[in-house]
Amino acid sequence: MLLSGLANGQRTTLLMGGIAHLGNGEKIDNSIISIKEGKIDLVADLSKIRIDPDAFDTIYKIYGKHVYPGFILTNTKLGITEIDQVRATHDFREVGDFNPNISSQIAFNVQSKIIETVRTNGVLITQATPQGGVISGQSSVMYLSGWNWEDATCKANDGVHLRWPSSYYNTGWWAEQGKREKNKEHNKKVNEIIGFFEKSLSYSKSNNTVDLKMESMKGLFNGTKNLYLHANYANDIIDGIDICKRFKIKKIVLVGGEDAHKVINHLKENNIDVILNRVHRLPKNEDSSIDQPYIQASILHKNNIKFAFSYAGGMEAMGSRNLPFTAGTAVSYGLDYENAIKSLTLNPAEILGIDKTLGSIEQGKEATFFISEGDALNTIKNNVQYIFIKGEEINLENHQSKLYKKYKDH
Amino acid sequence: MKNLVKLLFLFLISYYNSYGQEAFPVNGVDENYKPTYAFINAHIVISGEKEIKNGTLIIRDRIILEVDSNIAIPNDAIVYNLKGDYVYPSFIDLYSDYGLKKTEKESSSYRPQYKSKKKGAYHWNQAIHPEIHASHEFNHDKERLKYLEMGFGSLLTHKQDGIFRGTGCLTLLANNQENDDILMDKAATFYSFKKGASKQRYPTSLMGSIALVKQTLLDAEWYENTSNHSNISLSEYNSNKYLPKIFELKSHLDYSRLFKISDEFEIDYIVKGIGNEFLRIDEIKKSGFPIIVPIAFPKAYDVSNPEEAMDISLSKLKRWETAPFNLRILEENKLTYTITSSGIDKKSDFIKNLRIAVEKGLSQKDALNALTVTPAKLIGMSEKLGSLEKNKIANFIICSSNIFNDGIIYENWTGGKKNTINKKIKNDIRGYYTFNSNNFKDILVEIKGSKEKPQTRIIKIDSSNLKTTLNEKRVVIYNDAGDFRCSGVYDEGTIKGRYQDRTGILHEFIMTRDSSLRKKERKERILKTTDVPDVWTPNKSNGLAKSLNKKSLLFKNAKLWTNEDLGIINNGDIAISNGKIIAIGENLDTNQIPDFEKLDIQVINLRGKHITSGIIDEHSHIAISKGVNEGSQAVTAEVSIADVINPDDHNIYRQIAGGVTCSQLLHGSANPIGGQSALIKLRWGKSAEEMKIKNTDGFIKFALGENVKQSNWGSFNTTRFPQTRMGVEQIFYDAFYRTKRYKEEWENYNKLSLRKKRETNPPRENLELNTLVEILNGERHITCHSYVESEINMLMHVADSMGFKINTFTHILEGYKIAKKLKQHGAGASTFSDWWAYKFEVNDAIPYNAAILNQAGVVTAINSDDAEMGRRLNQEAAKAVKYGKTSEEDAWKMVTLNPAKLLHLDNRIGSLKVGKDADIVIWSDNPLSIYAKVEQTYIDGECYYDQKNNLSNQERDRNEKIRIINKLSNIKGNNKIKDRPRKEKLYHCDTIEHE
After folding, report:
1. Chunked mean pLDDT (size 10), chain A, 410 residues
2. A318 contacts on B by Cβ (under 8 Å)
3. Which partner from A180, B218, B756, B801 sits 20 to 30 angstroms from B538, CA to CA?
4. B882 vs A contacts (CB less than 8 Å)
5. Domain of residue A60, CATH code
6. Do A328 and B931 touch (CB under 8 A)?
7. Rounded to two decimals, what is the model's pTM?
8. How far apart are CA B287 and CA B270, in angstroms?
9. Nearest CB to B978: which of A181, A234, A329?
10. Which runs of consecutive H residues, i.e. helices, occur in B91-177?
């Protein structure tokens, strides 16, 4: 087969010799990838086909380097916050308990200085997620590149985020025991959630004039939006799923799931995908095994539960450039490498509903991927040299590399 | 000598306090007759040591006149026959706030309070009030009954608030005029580390409290010799300083903290304990304090929900199980202790818990002594209280039988006055009766229940239980519906009386007893040989069941990261013995290992593995109790993290599992001059003192920027100086000018001749300035929290002009902008690998910082400042390779040799070199790789972490948890408590409060 890149007079790009991690669990050690019209035109084993390099506008020889689909960062405030201690930069938490109408998309600051530093480690797509309250609002899937939020949008309002009230109530303080009561607010809040869902479901069948909150819940019942259920304790996970199921919500994704490995059957029976907490975290409590956060991914994988990595937690915006390394840790604790990649790419793409165009290096999908000189999951090897978003090469400079350049020989 | 003086003094006051009726005006006529009472035929327990099976006790007024068997009873005596009853000396509680109002907290003000609000010439800190005297406020109240019911006859009561709390008074519970009941108006002075109701900012942390205690003790000493200053608080402290001192502790770890103070100031304390002394019994034994122990045992946990049950921490479960053994363990360790009711919510729990403690192996004799003889002795009142002996105060309880088995208290006599607790029932009316009246014939009736609270059942009719009251001989039987009511009189087996039918007619009846209830064969409480549950150090998951030992090992064929001229040895051998590295090289021959024959070295092949020296975290805040910041004042050089090391913190274990062997525990960054650091090795399972590295240089934390300006603490925190970087500079200049004046003052004083010295008052010793003097003398070294270039530059100017150096700038995220200046000053840098954007001042932080500084020749370390990151500092070092292209060897030194240099410990740790400490880590892979895992961590040649043992520990801990949960689920009753897994508190630089 002879490929001609110049067909139809479009710009074409050819990448030769890379170790391609396709994102779907497969790998091609000596690959050839071509880009046309921002899309992947071909992915193949270089040794198995003949090509005519002259037929392409641009050729990258990337022998021995690694190619990955753009990593997808789920459940994050990256882009809707900038500096943790400066309140003026916070755009991720609205007032009130039930805010399903809030949408992160329009607050997304694609020019964030943090975003440029996250991109350069391989994270190219993010799910900008509001926080706070019981229903925090809607997340949107965003590219980490663009002129404004509109062209950075990958999928607007992909889902509603419900934070399940924790069954426990904090009293006293850590060194001295306070009263150990169940969270009395818990039942009240759960009842509020039930009431809110009842109303939303009824609204979805009615012809009422527009009610902003109800309107934004509609998608949960017709399957156009995910319900992201944030819950950590085993009992809360089970209660949350059962109650949401009662309202015929089409797709529920568990977010957090500190105890997810304890409720595997329940997750399976209900077909629930999981967005994990940050792998680099402390164990749940003093009795948890020291590697509990590290091995959770491999346990879920062994049990055929689909999951994606996230970096939720303290200082998550700036820290999210370490997302690839957290997957690396999961690899050293039992998750196989290509599945770790999948959990950064195709799995989140499927969960977020963008897998038709993104999430893997496959013919016809968007050319949103990057090339690292070495293993992108290993800190000492991760060295991103080229980034393509929708087929376009992205500048690798960032605020920090500019300062480095300015001062290194000062 | 000190003790002798104290004893003499106590002897004097105990006589000084001998009672005498004060002339209170009488409204009416004077009732002055004091009868003599004789208690005969009693089982008299004189003390733990001595009892009389059939004795007589004679008292008059409030004094015991005689106690013995076979003594003549005075004619005029009121005689009580106590046949079958037990008499004990009544109990003494040394830790009570009976009869005193609780000190209320003042309402919160919007702004923090930095100065004392107390009017008058008192101490500057509101938590120091030795001028408060319980006797000034004491008044009997209805709580008295509660104490009497528990068996107490006298209490030492004080205002339980503050750090220097003032004096407590010893009172009888006789309910006389306070003037008569108070046996000693000042019986002891009281202390704690908790500031209580004071709203003044200082101290915010435990280490602040400790420093405040020490400074106050110094001030009190100084005040005795000064004349141009008035301070009521110090004066009151001094005038009461020979009284016994009772110090309330809140944690088993506080024992060694107080011991250091006690040792330094040569002060003996009595400790109000916690009830979990078993947790670190060896250390507590070493401290040697007499202990006032509460017996409010933890309540049983509700384990009905399995998920929730598994979330109850093993440490809590183990504490629940072992707490009832606490007294026994104290006894077995030969400690002096007394028992307090403090912390008991329900009065019936006191005797109940006491019996549980006895059941768990505390002897009755020891239990009684701990309630009587010992407390009396501790406050110097043995002459008057604690046993039933001639001339002592008539404080005793009369019980139905042995109180440690099932005896109930009938009467509690205090100061010769009777208080009835439970009515003594002379007649046991229980048994099977035949009931006869004109309309009922031969009805079978059973009276059962207890002697005191009988219950009636008419067997032949409906067998329902009827209420029964017994008052002397009068028996009333009735049912709830009120349709059966009868009243009769019991006399030797028959009850005669009348009952009323529905028409209102009264009928005579007679009940004759056919047989007494068959007394259940009472099994003598056989002292079950109950085994004390295993106590681990620390007593929680991964705790050590037995201590480790130093091994002699030869690791062969591993890749050795030496950090020395040898570089990385690809296939090397390393031998350790007696805690040190004894040989290193390629293919070591046994004759290259000193004393190979004698050492019994175990050879381990580690092909494919990597060996490094242990990771050193230059900036850590784990293993700290109750507050990392004494952030209340701009300068707090007097406080020290070394006073508050928490060896029980499980983050220690988590971090050795990440290859960390040594940490500098730093004070936080809430103020420009913070507290002193502690250098520890992560010797998991050891005590706080054993974790400290011996003979190190001193270190202290300084800080700059947003934290010390309180920029991010909310808009109410805008009154403490400094609020700008300009003010920060002035704090440093002021502190060091004050230090220089202070230093000179002392130098001048020390130059004086001995004779002159005697005539001159020494300057006031100031712990804060003492520490700063050490900096000027080059004996203490600064680690300064810093971010932006301007402030770093500023501090180097201050240091240069005042004559000291900055040892390390920590964080120093803009260090790369002034690398040459740092090099010139000689400062080292300890930085984050890639943190930024968490506050305004870290906007220009870059992950290339470490590489640039290293390149410029600055000694550069990468630290954690974070319990999570501390688990994987190897990965953080890797970022120097990723971002700044630092060589792998240099990057590795950033978490090992370089921090060792910054801590002045590089002659002992930080590399693989013969003679250095055997602090080594075995890795599965290149330690900088994300795929590297720690397989073993050795500190001083002892294996503190082993991947395989970790797995077996997990199994052990799980089994232990299940075992205790099963035990809990067998416990009946519905007053079990819910538990929740508490969110762990983790300290960072800017954690302000510990509450």
Report:
1. 45 94 97 96 94 91 98 98 95 97 97 97 98 97 97 98 81 41 77 96 92 97 97 94 95 96 97 98 94 97 98 96 98 98 98 98 98 98 98 96 93
2. 835-838
3. A180
4. 379-380, 382-383
5. 2.30.40.10
6. yes
7. 0.93
8. 11
9. A181
10. 143-150
